[in-house]
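Q&A FORM
Asked by: J.P.
Topic: structure of BTB domain-containing protein

PROVIDED:
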Amino acid sequence: MTIKIEGVLVVEKEMPKKGETFGDNRDALGLGLWNQEENKDITITADGKEVTAHKLVLAARSPVFAAMFESGMKETKENKVEIKDFSHDLVAAAIKLCYHHSLVTDITLNNKMALLQFFDKYDIQPLKRI
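REPLIED BY: S.T.
REPLY: Here is the structure written out as tokens.
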């Protein structure tokens, strides 16, 4: 007897609250870092709106960001990056996805396509599977 099942399994988790103990949760680092506003050291601007992040997280996900931060470019000195070719909402979603997939929900097909373009431009390989 063979049973074939096709579909998508979705697991919902609550996001940990700031300062919460995470135990053995492997996802805790990204979520914990995202919740620590005071330690974020780079500001990403798009459409005149800002998103803050950790250089280390972005550099770990993207060799493009890593090269930008290591090169001594204006962005590194000023701790600001302006992204002109993507909307603020898309940039914010992409930055959140660098931390953890649960930070962005309800991604439409159009947004997935735009995120794929962002991930391609900034060479964020692991997130291209979303």
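FOLLOW-UP: The chain is about 40% helix and 10% strand.
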